[in-house]
Design a protein that fits this description.
This protein is of the alpha/beta class and 306 residues long. It has 12 helices and 10 strands.
């Protein structure tokens, strides 16, 4: 066993200095970062300079009139993100223990979950927990995952990415079939004749699933228009701008549903329930997770007496 003399001397870093580093890395300018933290630009600059001194490495470099994070400072930034997120978790946990209430829960979901798959479960949670302030963020999967890692969300329901960050744990929530939809006057033919396509933006988790599936069929994935919103893609198909691969729940609702070119799915995207690993327990977060797992559905009119 190593003696205390053999262990490296730990730099005397503060959480505030690490928070300054995260803010400076994420904001477009130092002034914006300082404003977001509620400090002056000079205080931010001094704090970052002290952090560099204590780490013993230069973290920033000047490029013209900009001050940018050095590439070799990435490990320090990753450490700062972990510490800041964990400290925020600790502060929230301590607050719940002091007040005896869980205060607020921050949930992030993709639109299909908030509008279709778990809409009733989210409403039921709010009704059943009136003392908990539920903050709901609806965004693409990539943004949700980044917010979760930063500590801005407690729970996220998103499309499973190809690579899950080490600090995030995820459990399967549901598998959602994706079908091919063509403009009304299109000749379905064979996959080799399909397209052009309207699709989710490059970098989207769903787009990666779609591109892989289409390539396996021999279809060319020539994208002519993009949108993060499935409803917009649906309307593009109706206008004849291109073909799309969409979840049934978002392609076929309402009086004018899209008709799939094939009735069997081209792919399946897995939606997962994600949280950061090793966070302090929170009864409200646990209750929300159970509600999302439950797959509760709204009662039909016939059973509700209406």
């Amino acid at each position: 066993m190593a003696s205390p003399r053999d262990l490296p001397v730990l730099p005397n870093l503060t959480v505030q200095q690490l928070e300054y580093l995260v803010a400076a890395a994420d904001a477009p300018t130092r002034a914006t970062a300082a404003a977001g933290l509620g400090v002056t630009p000079s205080a931010l600059t001094q704090g970052l300079a002290e952090l560099e001194r204590r780490v013993g490495l230069p973290l920033f470099e000047r490029r013209g009139r900009q001050t940018l994070l050095r590439p070799d400072a990435a490990e320090v930034l990753a450490h700062a993100r972990r510490v800041v997120a964990a400290t925020r978790d600790l502060a929230r946990w301590a607050g719940t223990r002091r007040t005896g209430t869980s205060g607020n829960v921050r949930l992030g979901t993709i639109d299909a979950v908030a509008v279709h798959h778990r809409a009733f479960a989210i409403r039921a949670f709010r009704t059943g927990h009136p003392d908990i302030d539920l903050h709901l963020t609806v965004a693409p999967s990539g943004q949700l995952l980044e917010s979760l890692v930063r500590g801005d969300l407690d729970v996220a329901v998103l499309v499973r990415p190809a690579d899950l960050p080490a600090e995030v744990i995820a459990e399967p929530l549901l598998d959602e079939p994706l079908l091919v939809y063509a403009p009304a006057d299109a000749d379905v033919g064979t996959p080799a004749t399909w397209g052009p396509w309207v699709a989710f933006p490059s970098g989207s988790h769903t787009r990666s699933v779609v591109a892989t599936a289409l390539a396996a069929t021999g279809a060319r994935f020539e994208v002519v228009a993009e949108s993060n919103q499935p409803e917009v893609l649906r309307e593009m198909v109706r206008l004849g701008l291109g073909w799309a691969v969409l979840p049934t729940a978002q392609a076929e609702p309402g009086a004018e549903p899209l008709v799939p070119a094939r009735h069997e799915p081209i792919a399946v995207r897995q939606l997962v329930l994600a949280q950061r690993a090793d966070v302090p327990p929170d009864a409200a977060v646990d209750a929300l997770v159970e509600a999302l797992r439950s797959n509760a559905v709204a009662p039909s009119r016939a059973t509700s007496g209406r």
